[in-house]
Amino acid sequence: MITIDNLTKIFETENGPVTAADHISMEVPEGEICVLLGPSGCGKTTTLKMVNRIVPPTSGRVLINGEDTTGLNTVDLRRQIGYVIQQIGLFPNMTIEENISVVPRLLGWDKARYKARATELLDMVALDPSIFLKRYPRELSGGQQQRVGVIRALAADPPVMLMDEPFGAIDPINREIIQDEFLKMQKELRKTIMFVSHDIDEAVKMANRIAIFRTGKLVQYDTPDNLLAHPIDDFVESFVGDDRALKRLRLVRVGQVIEQSAPSVRMGDSLEHAFRLMEQHGYTQAIVLVNEQQQPIGYVSRAVAQTTQGFCGEHYFGLKATAHIEDDLRKVASLMFNHDTTWLPCTDSTGRFVGQVTQRGVTHYLGATYHAQSDTAALKHVAAQAE
Amino acid sequence: MYFPRFKPLFLLALLVLVFLSGVIIERNNWLAQFLFYSEDIIYLTGQHIELVVISGGLAILIGVPLGIILSRPSVRYLAESAMQVLNIGTTIPTLAILALSMSFLGIGMVPAVFGLTIASLLPIVRNSYTGLLEVPAHLKEAAAGIGMTPLQMLLRVEIPNALYVMFAGIRTALAINVGTVPLAFLIGGGGLGELIFTGIDLNRPIMMLAGAIPTALLAILVDMLVAICAWLIVPKGVNPLRN
Ligand SMILES: Nc1ncnc2c1ncn2[C@@H]1O[C@H](COP(=O)(O)OP(=O)(O)O)[C@@H](O)[C@H]1O
Ligand SMILES: [Mg+2]
């Protein structure tokens, strides 16, 4: 856990003092990623660098797992904190192996151990150790260097990581890939991470919590979903963008909005049976047809079931698209737009039909947090009036 | 490796040239005259090398640490003025430096070494200093952020990344040094300058060449040695010679 307590940094410059961080207080819970987000020059980097004392604070404290770091030896402190700088900062005079082994060697690991560790870490980011261990940084692409920068910080398995725009110097496609890789690693490693970004999409994707900065002040500290649903003021609202409702889509997984225990029909069921099921569940359009393995293979339309005699197996249409239970709603919305449909059958990891996601379900889910908020706001209003 | 590359045509031209020179030398009996000085050449070359090694070695031993110290943040306020002083030092011709050092150290080997050391010091100090300053700030930040002590940072990050520039300074310095050593004779420091200057004085071109040719060969040899050292010592990842 990282606790920042009333942290302030004032730089004395030729043009007078610059307050880069102004009484910042926040807490990053253990195992979470906190993204510091804001426009350029708002004090994100300064705040981050005060955690490992690259920038000494003017006032205030930083606690790591409850321990005040103010009096600690900076060298010892920094060896416990993984640090990824914006410029990657691989040492060009060292091989990739030597770069990764820097901190373990400073900590006095024996040779066999740090060598094994370097190999393991390269494997983890899908860089073949037999090729890359002996290479020099200049022989790597930007994306490969960035991966090495991250695993170098992870080498000694520090509980806390500081990352300053770690995926900034890289093209958008590779950035998405590295972000996904990193999230996968984080799922297992559960580091406590402070992560600077100026990109709202990256923040929404990576963060458990987002801290929005403006001119040295922490304006809002919230979960990505809350931040997008309830920006605290106009600045945050404009910063997160007027497509914030769409951005929320990527935060929600199909599993969260799925209509559970949705009915389905099989080849051998009669159309009459299908129609009755649709009546019961209020389906105005269609019902999913599954095979013996419970996998969705088509649908029977309500119009057909109502007007025709026979079996579902004889009168079904093929499926245009299905959603996976782990997909986010952005993908679902995109599939719906692409295929001009308002509902999609959903499958689990074995490909079996587990329910369906509908446009109404999505709208309802996203709307629910707004309603909840306006309810509590109304209650507060009532309470305030009662006093 | 540092090998001059010869084109075949150039090689042929060289062969012809060597052959013709050989013929001319033989006709005039120059070789025998030249070999007349062989004992002097060997003795004086030894002295010459001694001067280069001692003064060049001293210049490196003093110049590199001085450059490192001047590049430390704690003395940076001093560094620029120190560089100015050294810069003024180089504008003084090396002959004048030798003359000055003779004026208070007398004649002999000691003032010669002293003068030569001073004359070759500046490029070493300056390149060590700027090489270290030019190590990108983000590398130093990464090193500090990782938890290196200032000394570890100097030894593992700053010096390795500055070495190439530092070697360039040493190379320049030794070139100056080797070129200046013949002048040491003028203040009684010995070396191949003795043959050169005496040859000039007595108007004996062969005697002069007996000093000049080994001097030139030595200069090439020293330059090659430095280049080989740079090739071997500068880490592969930051060594432009080893791409
Ligand atoms: N070393 C410094 N000296 C003077 N001013 C600085 C220094 N570092 C940062 N600043 C100023 O502090 C403010 C915040 O900078 P920074 O934390 O780097 O912003 P961000 O990372 O959010 O872009 C800026 O106005 C910047 O100019
Ligand atoms: Mg920044």
Q: CATH homologous superfamily of chain B - what is it? A: MetI-like
Content of β-strand of chain B: under 5%
Q: How many strand segments of chain B? A: 0
SSE arrangement of chain B, N to C:
HHHHHHHHHH
Based on secondary structure, the structural category of chain B is mainly alpha
Mean pLDDT of chain A, to the nearest integer, reads: 90
Kindly report the oligomeric state of this protein.
Answer: heterodimer
Biggest sheet overview of chain B: none
Under CATH, the topology of chain B is which? MetI-like fold
**Count of helical segments of chain A?**
16
Highest CATH level, the class of chain B: Mainly Alpha
Bound molecules: adenosine-5'-diphosphate, magnesium ion
Distance between the amino and carboxyl termini of chain A = 39 Å
| Strand element count of chain A | 17
Binned strand content of chain A: 15-25%
Indicate the radius of gyration of chain A in whole angstroms.
26 Å
Sequence of strands across the biggest β-sheet of chain A: 6-7-8-3-9-10
Summarize this entry quickly.
The complex is a heterodimer of chains A (387) and B (243). By secondary structure, chain A is of the alpha/beta class.
Provide a descriptive summary of the structure in words.
The complex is a heterodimer of chains A (387) and B (243). Chain A has 387 residues and is an alpha/beta fold. Chain A has helices spanning 44-51, 74-79, 96-106, 111-124, 129-132, 142-154, 172-189, 200-206, 224-229, 234-240, 244-249, 254-257, 271-281, 302-307, 329-339, 359-386; strands spanning 2-13, 16-28, 33-37, 59-64, 67-68, 81-84, 160-164, 192-197, 209-214, 217-222, 264-265, 286-290, 296-301, 317-318, 323-324, 343-347, 353-358. In chain A, strands 6-7-8-3-9-10 form a six-stranded mixed sheet, sandwiched between helices. In chain A, α3 (96-106) runs parallel beside α6 (142-154). Chain A is elongated. Chain A starts with a strand and ends with a helix. With 243 residues, chain B is mainly alpha-helical. Chain B has a single domain, classed as Orthogonal Bundle (MetI-like fold). Chain B is 81% helix and 0% strand. Chain B is flat. The interface between A and B is medium-sized, with 26 and 21 residues. Residues 11, 13, 18, 20, 38, 40-46 of chain A line the site of adenosine-5'-diphosphate.
